[in-house]
Amino acid sequence: MRQDPTAMEDTWLARAKRLLALAETGQHFTTDPFDRERYDEIAGMARAMLADLGRVPLSQIEMAMPVHSGGYSKPSIDIRAAVIRNGGILLVRERSDGLWAMPGGFADIGSSPSENIEREVLEEAGLRVTAQTLYAVRHKARHPYPADPRDFYKLFFLCSPLDAATPIPGPETSDAAFFAPDALPDLSLTRNLEKDIHDAFQANGTSPSPAMFD
After folding, report:
1. Which of 13, 48, 88, 111 is most buried, by CB atoms within 10 Å?
2. Do the Cβ atoms of 173 and 105 come closer than 8 Å?
3. What's residue 212's pLDDT?
4. pLDDT-derived band of residue 7, with 50, 70 and 90 as boundaries?
5. What secondary structure letter does DSSP report for 65?
6. How would you classify the pairing of strands 100-101 and 104-106?
7. Angle of helix 33-54 relative to helix 11-29, nearest 10 degrees?
């Protein structure tokens, strides 16, 4: 089942992001200096549109979206771990905003998805886990996360703890603890929604529904 269109990102934001992606791909592949100049102008206009839509300075967009490194412009990948133990789910408090999220972050090049997420849990919560199931893959723009000038695929893994150790915060987190699904703290909505957490409990021990892969 598709999300209600009202929960998806603004149409003009989606178009500006796509325009920038096309411009950056053209910048990389063109060999014509005049076409390169046109693509540079289009990329600049797309970034200005993103700044206008977000009501932020252009410099903020440029910092969030550095100059494309080459090749086709592609979505970034954000990975999150659902570690469930004794009826609670592991959350960490992010130092950046003081809010709570499932451990995770950008996927690093050179590591498999499971290696990435297991490392994130260890770094952010001090727990050793093993990745078990990919229970959801989401295109961030199609769900009610806060609007973002960048484009993301979000991968959610069910992970099993390898021991009963007490979670401890890491360099990027200020706290780590398990929470019952009906007693969640204030969530960092750019990282995860309450639905992402409830879907983890639903998927725990069951086969994920295809509807979760959107």
Report:
1. 13
2. no
3. 63
4. very low
5. S
6. unpaired
7. 160
User: For 72, which DSSP code?
Assistant: S
How many whole angstroms separate alpha carbon 197 and alpha carbon 103?
Answer: 12
Contacts of 82 (CB under 8 A, 6+ apart): 89, 90, 102, 135, 156, 157, 158, 159, 197, 200, 203, 204
CA 141/CA 154 separation, integer angstroms: 10
Q: Residue 167's closest CA among 158, 178, 157, 154?
A: 178
Tokens 């892969």 locate to 213
Pairing of strands 152-161, 129-139: antiparallel
171-194: pLDDT as tens digits: 999 999 999 999 999 999 999 999
Q: For 160, phi and psi rounded to 5 degrees? A: -100, 130
Global pTM value: 0.69
d(CA 101, CA 93): 6
